[in-house]
Amino acid sequence: MAAYDDLMAYQRTTEALSQVAGRLGWDQETIMPRGAAEQRSEEMGAMEEILHARRTDPRIGDWLAAAKPASEDQKAQLRKIRRTYERNTKVPADLAAELARVTSRAQGVWAEARGNEDVAAFLPILGQVVDLRRQEAAALASDGNLYDALLNDYEPGATGVEISELFGRMRPRLVALRDKIMGASNQPDKLVGQFDADGQAKLAETLALTFGYNTDRGRIDRSVHPFSSGSGLDVRITTRVSESDPFNCFYSTIHEVGHATYEQNVDQAFLLTPLGGGVSMGVHESQSRIYENQFGRSEAFTQFLFEKMTAQFGTLSTPDPWAFYRAVNRVSPSHIRTESDEVQYNLHVMMRFDIEQKLISGQLDVADLEEAWNTQFEADFGVAVDKPSNGVLQDVHWSVGLFGYFPTYSLGNVYAGCLFEALKADIPGHEEAVRKGELSAVTDWLRDKVQVHGGLYGPKEVIERATGSAPTEEPLLSYLEAKFTKLYDL
Amino acid sequence: MAAYDDLMAYQRTTEALSQVAGRLGWDQETIMPRGAAEQRSEEMGAMEEILHARRTDPRIGDWLAAAKPASEDQKAQLRKIRRTYERNTKVPADLAAELARVTSRAQGVWAEARGNEDVAAFLPILGQVVDLRRQEAAALASDGNLYDALLNDYEPGATGVEISELFGRMRPRLVALRDKIMGASNQPDKLVGQFDADGQAKLAETLALTFGYNTDRGRIDRSVHPFSSGSGLDVRITTRVSESDPFNCFYSTIHEVGHATYEQNVDQAFLLTPLGGGVSMGVHESQSRIYENQFGRSEAFTQFLFEKMTAQFGTLSTPDPWAFYRAVNRVSPSHIRTESDEVQYNLHVMMRFDIEQKLISGQLDVADLEEAWNTQFEADFGVAVDKPSNGVLQDVHWSVGLFGYFPTYSLGNVYAGCLFEALKADIPGHEEAVRKGELSAVTDWLRDKVQVHGGLYGPKEVIERATGSAPTEEPLLSYLEAKFTKLYDL
Question: Which of A240, A301, B379, B438 is 20 to 30 Å from A324 by CA-CA measure?
Fold first, then answer.
């Protein structure tokens, strides 16, 4: 027992320091004085230096060799620690440091290139990022598969082949649905108008509480891009407000509440341990997506939101609940993944997945990236890319080295589909409660079936335990087809 | 050169981590969700563990032995590092850890005891704190003087004997002045009324900017007790608002701006180095005090404040600048050090100094502390202590082990007196500018003469360099006698 206890005490300090580093990032994106940026980057660098040294400390290897787990939970802790430790020690320190430096710089280069619509200015450093991540993947890959090595950082156990097959099954049905919707005569109106910022912020807080966010262990601030940050007893979310687009504020809030409640609801026995957070990016996204889409964009919940918005802002341009529901779920051609609807969102993700696989395998050179993007975009979406900020420069991910991350968004949607199907069977009357803004039955179900387990089970295992069967795309696709057939009277 | 550079790179990371720990403390006192306290205490503990390990790392000793400084600045850096390292390595790790544990707990015990007016509940843990600090002092003291060993943590180079002599010279003149004031027929009125919180916060920000606080590298928030936090490019202050007592908000803001601008104005060449902050508690307090008192409570500045307050809140109960000035500087019997006026404040400090010397020397047992306090208070102030929260339980300091800290408050006042005398000679027209709320000439003088040097010179040396002569109590006492003679028409 001594080795296990020593290891866990060591990990506890590391987890606490990691929470501190996260909170420093939160501060930077929300309330940090502008002029503090240079010093902050040194502070973050110091935290990363300490964390990297701790995460690769050879004592971890000794403890792992000597530790005798006394329970299934302890076995799971050791599995998680071993996986992380092996991953971290496989990557040479020089390479890890170079990656940190280059990706930190690349993010700034990307932002400027996007502002200037200048792809050429971004490609040289993107080439470096791709090259370094390929080197890292080579150090990590046990079987030579570079893409899988990267994917496993975000979705343990997933493979590129499996995701290709999944996406191959999803794509034709999504394209068929999208084409039917686009051809429908019965197109919804948009919600138009000006919605004052304070009113939006107030209603966003109401929505967060409605979806079970615990503000006694969190807080809501503003940032340029909404995010959720932290684990355990201090999980903070941010939102943003655009006076002409209140859905942006409300649905990004609900989305982040999905992430945040996952972190808040993990079994407190796992607090500040390796199992004390969400198990994978895919399962994390399943929580944010089911909150945002299956509940937030449902006919039942939009009736509640319609009433709240009418009370807050007066009569809306979509003056009845059905027109409002249709406005929330309007499908239209869009260049931007993050502004996309439930039907087309996964098509955006699939395109990123196709392209990034080729970049990592070496099949596609960054010099040819823009052409590849524009060609595939027009083929997939039937619309030409008009400018780089609507095309290859729209997402920050690749600049910071996030290759293998995009598919987890769609895995999240697939998992959300499975969970929603099981939840509907378990809670037959849920829609009537949701219509009144009473979500505790459904959020409790998610808490008890998924969130409480933290990192105890693998990603697919936690979904299978919650739903009773292995995850497939079928529930998501059936849900989308049924929902939009009714919405558009197809 | 290699050893010096290695040492400084190491120190830079330590300084950056120390800034992170400080910012975590700021977060805790201002915006942290209530329910995060338990996790936060583990996060702070993890940061302290890391910092303690770095500050006692034997490599520092090796680097110090091998380093060849190439300039006076480098010599000063090494002096500072050596002093801190020797201090930290003299204290056994067990004792340091025990002190951290006990003082962390004692602060909570003190707060509860104060709330319950229950001295007996506090004394056992205070006894432990005194005992541990005595052990620590014994480990630190090279000459066997326990009190000096503790004092040197806050005011390098100061001795208890020297401070006793200083206070011995100050006390009779302060008592005589206080007694004359109390006997004057011409007592000022208090400012009375209700002053709305938002108006106070707005004016506090104006005052902060007026005194040169750089909000591009800082921010102003609320906390229970106002404080300044951080060094370099991110120095944050807090204030508090009481609707019936606007001077509390305004003068605590000006006070904290004195501390904060000192940290903001240190030469940027010292950023994230051991010399990158204020040199001692006494010199720090000289900046906060000269901002708050010699300027903030001057006849010239109170005229500016009178106009600002009248514009913000309407006609005041003290309807002309002279009555307002007298209200700001009203001297009255008070049990509470922090609410005291310029004349009596140092008498409070002297009493703490007398008592804490006896606690540390072993002459006074904590069992007899309350009686000693009450007896001396009545002798010094002519008023009986009515309850422990107005007596021995009023300050947090001793609970967290701050013995040797109190006298630095009065050293700060003494230094402020010296600086003010020199500044008046250098800037003859300063009062006319201050009357208009133009403080840049005086704050620039303090920046260039004192603040820019950070920790480069010793405490007395930086005052002597600024004023041209060694610091004495004479300027402070003459200033107080002149000011209050006129104010009370003595």
Answer: A240
Domain membership flag for residue A271 = yes
Q: For residues B85 and B274, what is the distance between their CA atoms, to the nearest angstrom? A: 11
Out of A256, A292, A421, A473, the active site residue is A256
Classify the complex by whether its ipTM is higher than 0.90, answering yes or no. Answer: yes
Residues in chain B: 490
Phi, psi angle pair for B128, to nearest 5°:
-65, -45
User: Would you say residue B425 has pLDDT above 80?
Assistant: yes
Give the DSSP letter of residue B141: -
Q: How remote is the C-alpha of B486 from its chain's centroid?
A: 28
B377 close to B365: Cβ distance less than 8 angstroms:
no
What 8-state DSSP symbol labels residue A290?
A: I
> What's residue A104's pLDDT?
86
β-pair type (A228-229, B220-222): unpaired
Task: Say which CATH number the domain at A174 has.
Answer: 1.10.1370.30
Is B105 in the same domain as B202? no
Q: Band of the pLDDT at A206, cuts 50, 70, 90?
A: very high
Model confidence over B157-206: pLDDT tens digits?
Answer: 999 999 999 999 999 999 999 999 999 999 999 999 999 999 999 999 99
Distance from C-alpha of B157 to C-alpha of B147, rounded to nearest angstrom: 12
Q: Tell me, what DSSP letter sits at residue B220?
A: E
Q: Of B121, B137, B153, which residue constitutes the final position of a domain?
A: B153
Which residues does residue A221 pair with via DSSP β-bridges, in sequence order? A238
B30: distance to nearest CA of chain A, Å? 12
Taking Cα atoms as reference points, which of A51, A58, A73, A39 lies closest to residue A268? A73
Rounded to an integer, what distance in angstroms lies between the CA atom of residue A50 and that of residue A62? 20
Sign of CA pseudo-dihedral A196, A198, A199, A204:
positive
**Same domain, yes or no, for B360 and B337?**
yes
Question: Which residues of B are less than 8 Å from A42 in CB distance?
Answer: 12, 16, 272
Q: Which of A27, A35, A46 sits opposite B13 (nearest CB)?
A: A46
Contact by Cβ (8 Å): A253, A207: yes
Active-site residues of B: which are they?
256
